[in-house]
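BUG: 3D viewer hangs when loading the predicted structure for this chain

Environment: internal workstation, default settings.
Expected: structure renders.
Actual: progress bar stalls at 90%.

Input used:
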Amino acid sequence: MTLGRVPVPTNEQRRQAAKRKLERQLANRAARAKRRRIFAVAGSVILVLLAVGGIYWLASGDDEQTPAADASETSTSEAPPAETTDGACKYTSTPAEPAAKPVEVPADPAEKVATGTVALTLKTNNGDIPLTLDRAKAPCTVQSIEHLAKAKFYDATPCHRMVASDNFKVLQCGDPTGQGTGGPGYTIPDEKPTDLAPSPVGGAASVYPRGVVAMANTGQPNSGGSQFFLVFGDTFLAPDYTVFGTIDATGLATLDKIGADGVDPATDQSGRGDGAPKLATTITEAQVLN
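Structure tokens produced before the viewer hung:
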């Protein structure tokens, strides 16, 4: 087979070929630039989406945390406001200091029951302490003490404090916790005594005579609750503690026995005869007899 002669391109043909080559190069370069722009835009979009997604995730995370934060705020929120009964005694709840043992606020009639007495015996591991509660002296206090006794609030309750010093001899009871900080979840209005003799040592003190029972308080007005003190020797105090009854001879004999052993030295922080009774005493039962 014979091959024919290969034709030689003219100058015009060479210029046209070079032009077409250049056009192809420019077209290819433009295409590459376009692709780069597309990739750059796509990348930017992706970055924006990721950023938005991150912001959404953070926002969602905050939303998810909100209930927990709300729950935390609720759990640490202040106690509900105190409520006062509508009757004559105006017992006031203490939400910030709930009852040391479950008990309701006493009924509070429109008129105070200010006549008659209530016989109440504190049965203890060291003997009985019979009391006569006097409604005429302190109707709201007697009503509350009777209510607590019937509700078994005082049963199995230690007498946590005794003071046995000159001119101050009392046994304090009525706190189920035994720490001196517990109460019934409400307070009783003060019914301050008006018939106590002035202290012979002068000053503003009065004599709480041997044989009376009176309410303890925090030192603030109307802060009595469930704690009370049994006086087994004349005691000089400001007349700020409601006297609501008396202790009979049997009860005083029991208190004298407890008082004779004095205060447990390990609990006498002041060194002046003020601490837990050395002869540990517990009210096993508070019995209302009428």
